[in-house]
Design a protein that fits this description.
The structure is a homotetramer. Helices cover 23% and strands 30% of the residues of chain A. By secondary structure, chain A is of the alpha+beta class. In chain A, helix 5 (180-187) links the parallel strand 5 and strand 6 (193-198).
Chain lengths: 385, 385, 385, 385
């Protein structure tokens, strides 16, 4: 086209591209997701280890890592039955990592991080490994019968989830499989949640089990070494976490949300959760900052343009991969639109006639609500005059 | 899981994540796509301007930009009928930009860049603007009757394509529309291709017209200012180009491929082309470097693992967004897998039993073969012993 | 030392290091130096070319580059006697680049950039090349006798400076040499300044000539191609500029300052200017944000510490290389201290006893006031209670 | 100057600038210094802590950090007399951290890292803290009388150095002071070295003590938490280390070099060592890749140019800050030249007449050989024909 004929909006478009690309340089390691209507979005990692079972760091490092990552809550969940450092660290009290974490928080004068006492029940399959968090005394969980351990945890008010059901150490094919003992534990409410994501691994079968048995979705780092190294935080990586949608930021608030199954998982660039949670989360992430019809300084046709410029601010860490399912075609994208994290992106919508508002809809391809099923969002766009 | 039980492959997985993220730091501005079986993949931008119509740079800059971008061929296509700098630059010869570009190439001792003589036929709609490239003498195109201009270009052996049919200066709704005069020009082979991408804009309707009328797919920068600024090349951006699949790197080779419709378009992170071109291009981009079953140093089950680690090297600039359509589920991804450009990515495939080879298949969501239709690829993976 | 014994100030120290290093990621291309007491610090490039002599861009690009670089004033100084593009651009008016630059500024709605009309008098040595800026009509400078050209420029009120006296095209040894004709021109006030820096080249002899003859210090890009490419602006590079210390931001303000010799040069990471200008500039760059004695949570000695923590904010683009000439030794540096641009740096000063204020003094090694002589600064530090 | 007149060498110059700036993006955390004639340059950190005294990590992390940093040797030197984690970790064997480090090395199949057994003798001043490394059994150092501890260490063949004599916990003014007991220990060869650099702190007085008493120069991290966090390794930072110039890479080779006082210190961007060590190290770092007289395609003078282009490859991590003390002036720098790490830099030397070889000499301002005294280097440059 002619240079002279270009309108200012093309400059904006070019700037828009620039903003998106800047996202690649977003290096702050704090994990960011917005709150959703009626709920706080709390970033939690409930599966971690320290030197008090088979981890490689003093518990204070877990607290420092969590604060650096901007987490709201953690639990250090030492193996009850697996104590490879016992020769050097023969501590009698299985609450020790928790106590040291609390002391660290205090000495750092931190007032934001919630630390839940927790333990990993570490058995062969079935039932494999499970985490009991929000327990009162880990020492009382040292029992022979695994069912007794679960019952004691429940007695203490714990929220209990099945860890990495797909772990290759216990499943040669990486496939999570529900056994009779799991069914029994679930039925007795001794298992309340399930890890769909553990460390670097994701399980479609665990997602199916969660949906079929109404279990809370859990994602966790299961970190033993350093978060920085395991998750390449200085190259834009992050640990997997559970996003807990809570009424308040407190132990009670989180526990209530976990029992209510109000969670989602943030893993690599993927969100995993039910449509009822992911839809508001994604809508809260994507804010329309401007919606205005393009103008042109020159045209052959003299008609008002019906190409709508929409500037969307992404207030989350997710690079959303959207598939356009609207009635409208886009002027600067095919059907797939990528929305860079923490930046503005411009999309141009061809509306055929000038409207006062339009509805856009998208499948969010990096947001999973069920096997092969993605979150779907609607955006009602009120057009600026 | 227990720290002790982790196998080396988990370390690799972690490294894989790291490689992917490194891609964000890939700042070399040269555009890279591999050759495909039987053809060279040539990177071409056939729509550009200089001061000899309404551009802002001397033609030599277009040559330098092209060499910096690693292009194989360009054309500087000055407007025949739009000469806003005429007062200052009243050159009588409309081949002048072409001549200066050739001189620049010579003075730079470059032997790789092909420069095609070209002109932009600049008329109101219909037929709007068109580029004639591989012409012999632009001066002879200065005729009153637009049809005469197309005929003269054809007489000179030109390849002619319809520019930005969706341009807001000539289409208030941004919609490309085929008129009778276009049909006539196409029928007489006076229009051979169509821009589906021009500058920052994409047209689904132009794609439909291309498919319905068997026109060559063209994407071009239409640059007037600086490529660096318009396309944010220092933040990872690039100009839109036409990928020409040619038998040889020569004017004749490119021309033959253009008339054969052997092209695709590279625009932002999207490829647009027919399945017959995109499939080999994507397959040539994604090289399997390793495919081996995971091992574990500890397991409860004592069975050989059936989780297959596949390391894929992406030899292109595209960040491929793959949707898994295989019979197999993945161990570290839901159904969407992102393959970072110019780096290695690890995927873990659950094969249920140990195989000698498997077939993976994916829809490539950022590769468009028709409106709402994506390229599809098959990968036969031979498994290392 | 013992972990427990470390005080918070060590954390700060560590953060200080981090701030310094962040400076390496400072990629905004705008050039930044603070104002000095009584004067604005204006960033100016008075030597540039466009297609109207032997440059490669339309003048509008020079305006866009200047705005991107955050400059306050520019001049496009086409060669009067060297017109290699004359065949294509036979414009009769030698003010044309200036006029187009003004139109560009207007069309961009810019109200900040000052554009001075200028020309390059382009003769063999002696006297070689000179720039006359703030002229009224370049056409009147087209005279045979070089002395007549200088006189006409002076008649128009021009500020005139000798260009690249060290240029290898006119000095085989790269050495600037004052000839009789130069002496005469200087004596008659027909040469008012001299380029000590031109493009990528610096001349100690030009600095000596400037000092001996009381000429204004000039540094300029002499750009013919693109600033982005010549000066690697996307990797932290910048064009050489003249910093003009002016009473007001206006043509008259700049002209007055140039005739008053109130300038310095910013070239790579080096400032060149007289002590009277560099000292206030550097002092304005380096702001003490905090000065407080360290504390310690544990000590054997029970005495108040006499190690002073000073946090210095560098508000300029210069990475200052300081040589400590104070009476005090530093606790975290040997005698050389590097102060990263646009960031905070912490220095620790050993004062032997607790003071209310101290004086620090430094040679600034990347600030040149005469051959082998560096700027010297004093910092009076008032110590926080 | 005229665009047409520029020679290729100016392009090179511009590339040179680019290379230097690229250095800012050098993110590999491995520490790199070249070997010197007759000696290997070994990178060593002999002062570190783990959970077995007051550190925050399991000893295995120290081994992993060292391998990531490319170190040749480390020692984990737990406090003998300070055991704040004793309640949890009441291990009876003071060699435990050393043993675990060895096991980690073995399990990682590493064959390059040398691990020396060591302990920190942790007393009030005088004599304060000292490290004994290359000991045989730490348990035998648990004695009441400090002199007995030193004697036992010596009996075991240890190399012993005085730690952080300037530490604010034991010196309120941060000043290292030699006491009678230190003199006695030095005289009896019970103190062999001294930390001039500890963690983030540097001591000019320690340097004076080292020179006056012929003690080995030591720099060490004294890390308690994570190297990554304390030293910002992902922003280009590094821990302080001792460079040991050894005849062979072995425990014996390092020990011999330490007793021979063949060391230097690498701290932030500063080298500290004797001229006899720093001169060969810097000369080994700076390799002349090309030295050729510039040519010009156009000149008024028709004489061969006497401006010499020298391309220097810096094979080290140090950004050398050179002060030109040669007989020659530079064409692209004032007297200070900065040589970016791990990249090429171009300097242009004005030689007045064409020579076959020249000698350049520089003070290296970030290389300290004594208080306020810098290393000095000579470079003999043979000029390419």
């Amino acid at each position: 086209m002619n240079n002279k004929f270009k309108s200012i909006s093309f400059l904006l478009l070019s700037i828009g591209v620039s903003f998106s690309m800047l996202a690649q340089h977003h290096h702050d390691r704090k994990i960011n997701f917005p709150d959703v209507p009626g709920y706080l979005t709390l970033k939690c990692d409930f599966h971690q280890h320290s030197i008090f079972s088979d981890g490689k760091v003093y518990p204070s490092i877990r607290v420092e890592e969590a604060i650096k990552d901007g987490l709201d809550a953690i639990s250090i969940t030492e193996h009850l039955e697996y104590q490879p450092h016992k020769e050097d660290i023969p501590h009698p009290d299985r609450n020790r990592a928790y106590q040291i974490a609390l002391e660290t928080k205090k000495s750092m004068k931190d007032t934001t991080l919630i630390i839940a006492n927790g333990s990993e029940i570490t058995r062969e399959m079935p039932p494999g490994h499970s985490n009991a968090i929000f327990i009162k005394d880990a020492n009382l969980l040292l029992k022979d019968s695994v069912i007794d351990v679960f019952r004691e945890a429940k007695k203490q008010g714990a929220f209990i989830f099945w860890n990495h059901p797909h772990w290759k150490g216990q499943a040669h094919d990486g496939v999570a499989k529900l056994t009779d003992i799991h069914k029994k534990l679930i039925k007795e409410k001794l298992i309340n949640g399930i890890e769909i994501v553990n460390e670097h691994v994701y399980s479609t079968e665990a997602l199916e089990i969660a949906l079929a048995n109404d279990l809370t979705f859990i994602g966790a780092s299961d970190v033993h070494g350093l978060i920085d190294w395991e998750y390449n935080v200085h190259k834009g990586g992050h640990r997997p976490i559970t996003l807990v949608f809570a009424k308040e930021k407190s132990e009670e608030g989180i526990k209530a949300a976990l029992f209510d199954r109000s969670t989602a998982i943030w893993f690599n660039n993927t969100l995993i959760g039910k449509q009822e949670f992911l839809e508001p989360l994604i809508n809260a992430s994507l804010i329309v900052k401007k919606a205005k019809y393009l103008k042109t300084s020159w045209s052959q046709h003299k008609k008002p343009l019906t190409i709508l410029e929409v500037i969307i601010q992404n207030n989350s860490d997710a690079e959303y991969i959207l598939e356009n399912t609207s009635d409208y075609l886009l002027h600067n994208n095919a059907d797939i639109v990528t929305i860079a994290p923490q930046h503005k992106t411009i999309i141009l919508v061809k509306t055929k006639q000038q409207e006062e508002s339009i509805n856009l809809s998208f499948n969010v391809l990096n947001a999973v609500v069920a096997p092969k099923k993605h979150a779907h969002i609607q955006m009602k766009i009120t057009i600026d005059k």
